[in-house]
């Protein structure tokens, strides 16, 4: 790693909140993490060996409390889902849902996604990468902390199979514009929007309560889908 990369690595897209796990989350961690969790190590994962089958692999970055992640895995059992989240109560909450939905097609990683992408994901191994409602970092001086940046998207592109899709969604218009400014000029990606900007919410992204409430209040949500050339 050169010194420029080292400097950039210090800018993180998250602030690690100290959150305590509820009893239910703790229980789900103890019970299910050994089977449904993946430890971060500086070595490549072998998805075929991990899931004991060959199926399309979807990677979600920053799944929060895991609601839409777990619902997708429940509704698309013929796909395998890798979810990354730094906030460990979120990982616990996701495993509570995994138990409720009897999921076997997920693996969760409690670590910084930037490092996981860097060290653990084999090139051209993913069918879809999704980042839903990433932290918007509202203040201009914090925009550098937004996870969607050219260099990061170049790394994501390398992890997608040719034709694989990067799907982003945000409810913050300024971040939607930023996402478009980053991705539109990248020669590695093709915008799947018919209007060359945003796409209607695809059925694969479950609508959250938060989103319904926002829609009722007249707030917008922007989905972007780009395929890897
Ligand atoms: C605003 S929340 C959205 C959560 C979820 N996608 C949703 O729609 O409800 C963004 C999440 O991304 C996580 N996050 C931010 N940067 C991350 C990173 N580098 N690696 C893993 N998780 C990250 C945060 O901890 C937070 O839970």
UniProtKB/TrEMBL annotation:
This is tRNA (guanine-N(7)-)-methyltransferase. Substrate binds at residues 139, 171, 208-211. The keyword Endoplasmic reticulum does not apply. Keywords: Methyltransferase, S-adenosyl-L-methionine, Transferase, tRNA processing. Belongs to the class I-like SAM-binding methyltransferase superfamily. TrmB family. Catalyzes the formation of N(7)-methylguanine at position 46 (m7G46) in tRNA. S-adenosyl-L-methionine binds at residues 60, 85, 112, 135. It comes from the Bacteria. Pathway: tRNA modification; N(7)-methylguanine-tRNA biosynthesis.
């Amino acid at each position: 790693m050169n010194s420029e990369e080292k400097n950039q690595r210090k800018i993180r897209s998250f602030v690690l909140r100290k959150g305590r796990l509820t009893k239910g989350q703790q229980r789900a961690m103890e019970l299910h993490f050994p089977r449904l969790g993946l430890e971060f190590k500086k070595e490549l994962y072998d998805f075929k060996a991990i899931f004991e089958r060959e199926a399309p692999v979807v990677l979600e970055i920053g799944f929060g409390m895991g609601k839409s992640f777990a619902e997708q895995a429940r509704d698309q059992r013929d796909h395998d889902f890798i979810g990354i989240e730094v906030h460990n109560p979120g990982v616990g909450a996701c495993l509570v849902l995994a138990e409720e939905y009897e999921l076997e097609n997920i693996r969760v990683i409690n670590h910084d996604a930037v490092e996981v992408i860097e060290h653990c994901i084999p090139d051209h191994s993913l069918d879809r990468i999704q980042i839903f409602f990433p932290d918007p970092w509202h203040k201009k001086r914090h925009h550098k902390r937004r996870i969607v940046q050219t260099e990061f998207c170049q790394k994501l592109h390398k992890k997608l199979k040719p034709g694989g899709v990067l799907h982003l969604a945000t409810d913050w218009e300024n971040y939607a514009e930023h996402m478009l400014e980053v991705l539109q000029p990248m020669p590695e990606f093709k915008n799947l929007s018919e209007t060359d900007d945003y796409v209607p919410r695809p059925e694969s992204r479950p609508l959250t309560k938060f989103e319904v409430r926002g829609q009722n209040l007249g707030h917008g949500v922007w989905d972007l889908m780009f395929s890897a050339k």
